[in-house]
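Hey,
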Amino acid sequence: MFLSSVRFALRVMGKRPLRSFLTILQVALGVAIVAVIINLNLQMTEAVRERHEGTQKQLRLEIRYPQPEERAPGEGRATVTSVREEVIRPISIDEYRKIREAGIFQYISPVQNSHNMLLEARGNFFGLYSMAACDVDLPYMEGFRLLAGDFFAPEDVEAGRSIMLMHSQVARSLFGSDEEALGETVNVSHSRMFAPEVGQRSETYTIVGVYEHRDFQHGYQEQYYSLVPYTRRPDGDRQSFFHQFLVQMPSGLTIDMALERLDALLPGREGRLTLNPFGPSLEMELGMVRQFSIFLGVFGFIALVVSCISIFSITMVNVVERDNEIGLRRALGTSKRGIMLQILTESSLYSLAGGILGLIIGLNMQSIFFTGPRALLSVPVPVETGVAGFTIIFSLGVAVLMGNIFGFYPALQAASLSPVEALREQ
């Protein structure tokens, strides 16, 4: 009985192909939007969790100590001393080298950010938002992919050589390709557009390597577009201390164990050593993903409502146009259940066909939205372009359920049709 209902429904849909196609297309657009939203949520959540898994996580090493604050004594009162929020004490280069030689961490590097820099080479200019003075470990902690040349060597940093690692986007803008940038020199100065109070002092660097960022980074994590040795900062100074060090823990080492070894390594210092996550926590990032999904979900809900209205209206129109046929079938002995099954089969076929077409459209939408920016703008994309199995099952399930729910009332109306009244009208 079910197969005969399917064959009959297909004949009905074939009698009005344009109407049937437009209905299927309307359902497909709603399902496509829902599929993209679900797939994006799943892949972003997986990417965030993979980022935070295990102990291979970046931490910020700092020395904090409370700073006392004295208030002026009042009449007949003693001086009141309170303690303000802890402040960060710089870590000296000597302390850093002692920590590095101890081998406590898998990777460790000071990071001194310089913002709003202007790069000039071959008569071309590039405004650089961020570049970092660092040690040899930072490219490995950040997961940079080397495209040409080499990363820093320890002897380069110790000698304070004027060398630079340059991001591929910058290299191609200044020199045309990654390979052409190798061995070239670039002048670096503060951009007067963003920092007019800074003088025009500049430093010259030789490019030894070209890299690109990994596909996914924390939303709060800064992306460095040029790296120079910390012993050769862009302003020409050789700094003897740093406020920020990034470390990466080796497998099996906990934060408490690392702090115990640091305390034994640096006795008698002022303040306390701390290791804090660099970037937002897992809960914060998952919360951001949920908020983003809820925001997109509003549009998906609206698209589904429009699709549901489309199924409801086309099914009602079909019932009204075929009341004589339905009355004749009832007079020939077709049960109410058979009539309802026939109408529900038609609405389910509309929604199922729309769901399949919607998945195809959604896959191509995702490829355009996520692969296009990666290729054209070199923008890091946090997700892949494949479709998860759950997305396929959920989207098709929603489509079929939508067809049954919004086809139920028209089916009930058709089953309630009096055969006498239908034949009398005929």
